[in-house]
Write a structure and sequence with these properties.
- It is a single chain.
- The protein is mainly beta.
- The chain has two domains: 81 residues, RimM (Elongation Factor Tu (Ef-tu), domain 3, Beta Barrel); 60 residues, PRC-barrel domain (SH3 type barrels, Roll).
- It contains two helices and twelve strands, in the order βββββαβαββββββ.
- Strands 1-2-5-4-3-6 form a six-stranded antiparallel barrel.
């Protein structure tokens, strides 16, 4: 089963085993309706998810004290890919973009190693002969083929 990363566990809060969630997803409320989640390789049942201001906390069934919760700190939170939040047309998951080969015309210029969130648009960090940054804009990116793991650039004059 393919899983996707949606967060990471942070510090323990309080005495009854609540843990802070560090979201690694763009979808607000992603954690609110979950009843179970993979913590590392182990499937855990969620007792409740709570919010304090902008922070999100989780309480797992069977984790009832601070010491038991500390063991889970820094563990990655994943869900089956089938539970990925739906996307609108033309949107892609960051984890699908990473690892794509990037082509300028017929020339392969590298592989996406990271997607940088700049606020106005994403930027693909591409490693080839040298590292380059490519803005994820319609006038630069001609086509993204996730099934083939390939990205084709339309405006590639600046890539040499």
């Amino acid at each position: 089963m393919e899983k996707i990363i949606i967060g990471k566990l942070g510090k323990v809060r309080g005495l009854n085993g609540d843990l802070k969630i560090i979201p690694l997803t763009d979808f607000e409320g992603r954690f609110d309706d979950l009843t179970e989640i993979f913590v590392g390789d182990n499937l855990r049942q969620i007792e409740h998810v709570g919010h304090i201001g902008e922070e999100i906390f989780v309480k797992f069934k069977g984790i009832d004290d601070r010491e038991s919760a500390k063991v889970l700190t820094n563990k990655i939170l994943t869900v089956p890919r089938s539970q990925a939040a739906p996307l609108d047309e033309g949107e892609f998951y960051t984890f699908d973009i990473i690892g794509c080969e990037v082509f300028a015309g017929e020339k392969k210029i590298g592989i996406v190693t990271e997607v940088l969130k700049t606020g106005s648009n994403d930027v693909f960090q591409v490693q080839g002969d040298k590292e380059i940054l490519i803005p994820a804009l319609k006038n630069v990116v001609q086509k993204i083929d996730i099934s083939a793991k390939k990205i084709f650039l339309s405006n590639y004059d600046y890539v040499s």
